[in-house]
């Protein structure tokens, strides 16, 4: 079978289906496999087994073993061979079983995936997506619960995306697969089956690099992404009951950050709480502070508060609830900036 | 293990056949192209070294001694095949059809040096062994496309200790991909000798672990290199999967122009081996023995090669200065705002200096 770059035009359907986040991921992958013959899925246990979280359920059966591939247990092999596939005309979509297992492939990502365009002045490019579940809170064994996004946002040449809802997950994943550059796609595993949402059928994209306002308010800006969105949302709702109105933002993309949505909100409220699950030092929260410093210095009414994972390795699960930001910690930070 | 992987050789140090089964495949044209291409890259290598010494080229990786391995393996590639070299394989890519001024540009710190027209040549791998999975992936794409292209990747003895060596080889064998893993065992990974690199007696034997053919060849015998690599390419094109080739050779010089080999080996001893090991000398002896050698022809090609190299140097040195905008323009297809802002700010500051 000769993969060709012929595109069928798909009308975005008005009909929706109620899906979980992981089902939306499957939907996006299936949509793109059907749309573009160059798309290939590679990963451990993604074929016959449908992925350890069932993100690729039924896709191998539908699209065949040369499109949905059970690879050897070999992260650098998966990502490294995907570099070769990509420069020779394919669009590899890689599943790393857990983002905490990406480290063997880190060299390939740092020295090749992110640099091929630069090294060849765009003669060769790597349109590749690396998908992986990330984050704590599901009582997983060691290493399974890391949030190493900063290792990638600090790496020039790769975009980093992290949805928090089914509809965004599908639209962002399709956008990531269509993107001409490599994208790290972080899937919050604790939200995989946490709730359902109406997801449009067929083809649509959510733009990479654009955040989303979840609630409007004039008092405090709360900024987060991924698995922390529902956690922060609880704190935002509690604050509302106390009369504090939050402008609540889901960043959705961690590189490039949406500086407009941040500046617009901060210039309205002057008070900010940034929440993220990963460790504080060198966390993406610091880049958000840097944007606020650059765009909105004179609007600030209080020092910015950060609520993050601590600067400790993600612990064994007996202590993971202490490691993770909680509605309580976030609520305290909201009150602190509000009453400053 | 060594007896299971004897070194394949057709022509010995004296330039005499040890196995003349290839005799009927030899033409004057082929033998001449062996010598011409080896002389060409040796002359280039020596010239590049002297340019670096004069400050006209950056740090440069030398390959003198490995000419038979590089020419013999690259000569039977077809135009649409893929090559995944390291920083020491510009002899192989020049033979494959890389643009010589561009090769020089690369060693002068220019990304333009990776742009070889009409050839699938991936930029040289600087991390060790990362290129093996790349070759595997490119071969995989060609297999999906259903064409007859092959990929070859070059790597040294040190690379066999890296995880990516294993991952690339394993993938290629699992998916039966048209790729040739061409190892140049030159005895040293910078300063570490092979016996400190591995406890196995050969690199070829590592193929057993992946269920692929592995052969050990005399890397200074261009006949062995050319014909055995060609067989591996033929197998790959016919859908019979990958091959590991260990070409036993040596580098006569330093690891790079920034390396002092006298710190880890006796250079006089190395130089004393030239009479027996130099691949050009061996071919010269063979050609004289078999009446392929003509002084006049050698003079002609020497002149031609020197002219080509001089022209390449002129072209490299007259190449337009690096454009500062390229610093920002080839990171993403569309420039994200952080790069855009950094670029605008920097260009303003550059302009204010002018």
Overview in brief:
By secondary structure, chain A is an alpha/beta fold. Chain A has helices at residues 21-35, 59-63, 75-87, 103-113, 116-119, 150-153, 166-178, 228-241, 259-269, 284-296, 320-323, 327-338; strands at 16-19, 39-43, 68-70, 91-95, 129-134, 159-161, 183-188, 197-200, 212-215, 220-224, 246-250, 253-255, 272-279, 305-309.
Written overview of the protein:
The complex is a heterodimer of chains A (340) and B (354). Chain A is of the alpha/beta class and 340 residues long. Chain A contains 12 helices and 14 strands. Chain A has a 7-stranded mixed β-sheet with strand order 3-2-4-5-7-6-12, sandwiched between helices. A 5-stranded mixed β-sheet of chain A has the order 9-11-10-13-14, with helices on both faces. A two-stranded antiparallel sheet of chain A has the order 1-8. In chain B, the strands form 2 sheets. Chain B has a 7-stranded parallel β-sheet with strand order 1-8-9-5-4-2-3, with helices on both faces. Chain B has a two-stranded antiparallel sheet with strand order 6-7. Chain B is an alpha/beta fold. In chain B, strand 6 (188-189) and strand 7 (192-193) form a beta hairpin. Chain B contains 14 helices and 9 strands. The chains are: A alpha/beta (340), B alpha/beta (354). The A-B interface holds A 1-3, 40, 66, 71-72, 74, 76-77, 79-90, 92, 104, 107-108, 111-112, 116-125, 156-157, 159, 179-181, 209, 255-256, 259 and B 82, 84, 111-112, 114-115, 120, 122-123, 126-127, 130, 132-142, 144-146, 151, 163-164, 167-168, 170-171, 174, 326, 330-333, 336-338.
**Biggest sheet features of chain B:** 7 strands, parallel
Number of strands of chain A: 14
Give the terminus-to-terminus CA distance of chain A.
Answer: 65 Å
The protein's oligomeric status is heterodimer
Mean pLDDT of chain A: 96
Strand residue percentage of chain B:
5-15%
The rounded Rg of chain B comes to: 21 Å
Order of SSEs of chain B: EHHEHHEHEHEEEHEHEHHHHHH
Overall body shape of chain B: globular
Please list the strands of the largest sheet of chain A in the order they lie side by side: 3-2-4-5-7-6-12
List the uncertain runs of chain A. Answer: 1-10
Low-confidence stretches of chain B: none
Strand order of the largest sheet of chain B: 1-8-9-5-4-2-3
Shape field of chain A: globular
Mean pLDDT metric of chain B: 97
Biggest beta-sheet profile of chain A: 7 strands, mixed
End-to-end CA span of chain B: 67 Å
**Alpha-beta content class of chain A:** alpha/beta
Largest interface: A-B, 48 and 42 residues
The tally of helices of chain B reads 14
Strand-pairing-aware structural class of chain B: alpha/beta
